[in-house]
TrEMBL record:
Function: Removes the formyl group from the N-terminal Met of newly synthesized proteins. Requires at least a dipeptide for an efficient rate of reaction. N-terminal L-methionine is a prerequisite for activity but the enzyme has broad specificity at other positions.
Transmembrane segments annotated in the record for this chain: none
NCBIfam families registered for this protein in UniProt: PRK00150.1-3
InterPro entries per UniProt: Peptide_deformylase (IPR023635), Peptide_deformylase_sf (IPR036821)
Matching Gene3D superfamilies: Peptide deformylase (3.90.45.10)
Native source organism of the sequence: Terrimonas ginsenosidimutans
E.C. designation(s): 3.5.1.88
Catalysed reactions listed for this entry: N-terminal N-formyl-L-methionyl-[peptide] + H2O = N-terminal L-methionyl-[peptide] + formate
CDD domains: Pep_deformylase (cd00487)
Top EC group: hydrolase
Cofactor note: Binds 1 Fe(2+) ion.
Full protein name: Peptide deformylase
Keyword Protein biosynthesis recorded: yes
Binding annotation for Fe cation: 106, 148, 152
Length: 195
């Protein structure tokens, strides 16, 4: 089931999410989040973006890998082929010194896209949808997608990485997005919707 995606301006996008336990793994929510992600043609989605304040996010970078030509793959993926995975209670335990800038966008902030500097690779400890523990290192665009979604579960948005003066300049655009004065190709919940 496709869920509406909460727009910029919703307080839940600024809230630190609660951890899950084996007893509280929301199987139906995870299934709905995949539907919502693919319905919006996205590559990552975090639970607070659909109104659930829990430490859960999904990433599919395989889709992008399959769409890219070999030259682009060499830049964005280097030696990996991407992942499709569920991340629960994630903790980033290491960041590479190597950093890179690449364009990012967010399903909660439609119509905007900015270059953001991030570490090239990260090590992350997390549980999967069966609550099995993992510790893995990811790089390139996959690490970028993971960091973007991980930050959502801590109330951080990618725009927070922009310089202050840039953030000031786009404040009007963000205000319009929060009030629904924006076009998106997928269902959204705006701050002025009655719910
Ligand atoms: Zn996002």
């Amino acid at each position: 089931m496709v869920l509406p995606i909460y727009s910029y301006g919703h307080e839940i996008l600024r809230t630190v999410c609660e951890p899950l336990t084996p007893e509280t793994i929301p199987a139906a929510l995870i299934s709905d989040m995949w539907d919502t992600l693919y319905g919006a043609a996205g590559c990552g989605l975090a639970a607070p973006q659909v109104g659930e304040s829990v430490q859960l996010f999904l990433v599919d970078s395989k889709l992008l890998y399959n769409q890219m030509n070999p030259e682009s793959r060499a830049v964005y993926f280097e030696d990996n082929i991407g992942i499709k995975a569920v991340f629960i209670n994630a903790v980033i335990t290491a960041y590479s010194e190597r950093r890179w800038v690449s364009e990012e966008a967010c399903l909660s902030i439609p119509g905007l896209q900015y270059g953001i500097e991030r570490p090239w690779s990260i090590t992350i400890e997390y549980r999967d949808e069966y609550f099995q523990p993992h510790k893995r290192t990811f790089s390139g665009i996959t690490a970028r997608m993971i960091l973007h979604e991980f930050e959502h579960t801590n109330g951080v948005l990618y725009l927070d990485h922009l310089p202050q003066r840039k953030q000031k300049r786009i404040a009007g655009k963000l205000d319009r997005i929060s009030r629904g004065r924006v076009k998106a190709d997928y269902p959204m919940s705006f701050t002025n919707d009655s719910r």
